[in-house]
Amino acid sequence: MSSLADGAQLKPIRLIAAACNNLGIGKDGRLPWNIPSEFQFFLDTVTAVSQPGKKNLLIWGRCTWFSCPEGVLPLPNTLHVILSKKLRSVPKLAHYLCEDFDGMIRLASLPPLNDLIEIVWVIGGTNVYREAMEHPWCDLIYLTDIMADFDCDVFFPNFDKNVYRKQSGFPGVPDEIQEENGIKFQFQVFKKEC
Ligand SMILES: NC(=O)c1ccc[n+]([C@@H]2O[C@H](COP(=O)([O-])OP(=O)(O)OC[C@H]3O[C@@H](n4cnc5c(N)ncnc54)[C@H](OP(=O)(O)O)[C@@H]3O)[C@@H](O)[C@H]2O)c1
């Protein structure tokens, strides 16, 4: 990671994803399943701030951004950063374009945004998740276990469960197995043990 200027304000970096039995997360540019209550949990989590006026920074790989279902955006309490080396302008409804992960970190942690931003939520895809989980500021991985097999062409990266330890009774995250549309799933949170 490149060094940050003096005064950079540490921001918690958190991943949020849902993955099925083989860690699949996507197929043909879309989610492989339709589980509205799981998607609502995602929306509720990334839009939660501790006080009015604060914002969370949502980090999207280019493909994930353009796969977002119509009608989801805009989202309250959020600013959207698209990661891409190819795009030349900020897509409609997004706020910032960064050409690498470090550029996004500088955006989040230095003026003028540093006082506004609470949490950096990384919302995919694969490469963005991988960079985020390796970053020293990453503390939590929210990973819903979709307890079923789906045909997928994009996968959540493997991570060390001795570094990120599964939590039980994590505040605000139901522990029990749920079911919708015939698909069982369970919310999970993994916390980095330093
Ligand atoms: N189940 C879930 O929780 C979940 C979550 C998110 C996404 N998904 C699914 O995953 C699929 C999309 O994910 P994906 O992995 O294929 O693509 P993606 O990460 O969304 O997009 C890949 C593109 O993002 C840009 N990018 C990624 N990392 C970058 C970096 N460090 N710096 C600069 N640019 C970077 C590059 O764009 P350029 O080529 O423009 O440089 C790259 O080609 C979809 O099927 C989506 O539905 C599922």
Automatic annotation (TrEMBL):
It catalyses: (6S)-5,6,7,8-tetrahydrofolate + NADP(+) = 7,8-dihydrofolate + NADPH + H(+). SUPFAM superfamilies: Dihydrofolate reductase-like. GO terms for biological process: dihydrofolate metabolic process; folic acid metabolic process; one-carbon metabolic process; tetrahydrofolate biosynthetic process. GO terms for cellular component: mitochondrion. One of its GO terms (molecular function) is dihydrofolate reductase activity. Residues 12-192 form the DHFR domain. Pathway: Cofactor biosynthesis; tetrahydrofolate biosynthesis; 5,6,7,8-tetrahydrofolate from 7,8-dihydrofolate: step 1/1. Its EC number is 1.5.1.3. It holds the Pfam family DHFR_1. Keywords: NADP, One-carbon metabolism, Oxidoreductase. InterPro entries: DHFR, DHFR-like_dom_sf, DHFR_dom. Belongs to the dihydrofolate reductase family. This is dihydrofolate reductase. It comes from Pygocentrus nattereri (Red-bellied piranha).
